[in-house]
Write a structure and sequence with these properties.
Blueprint: E1 2-6, E2 9-13, H1 19-26, E3 33-37, E4 40-42, E5 57-62
Parallel strand pairs: 1-5
Antiparallel strand pairs: 1-2, 3-4, 3-5
């Protein structure tokens, strides 16, 4: 297990987890979100391949519709 910061909160995740797996586990709709990893925006096509590292800081924002 490693520890990351996920939207400001400490979270333990398995070693080898990808950004995509984290989003799916957290119920975040991958299609409608943006991910910042250690203060840099991550391209959507990299979510499935980018492994999380101990100490990573991830911020996720999602689109909210309304009217």
């Amino acid at each position: 297990m490693i520890t990351i910061q996920f939207n400001g909160d400490a979270k333990s995740v398995p070693t080898g987890m990808t950004i995509e797996q984290l989003l799916l586990e957290s119920g975040v709709p991958v299609k409608f979100c943006a991910v910042e990893l250690n203060l840099e925006i991550v391209a959507k096509d990299a979510y499935a391949n980018r492994l999380l590292q101990d100490g990573d800081a991830i911020e996720v924002v999602t689109l909210v519709g309304g009217g």
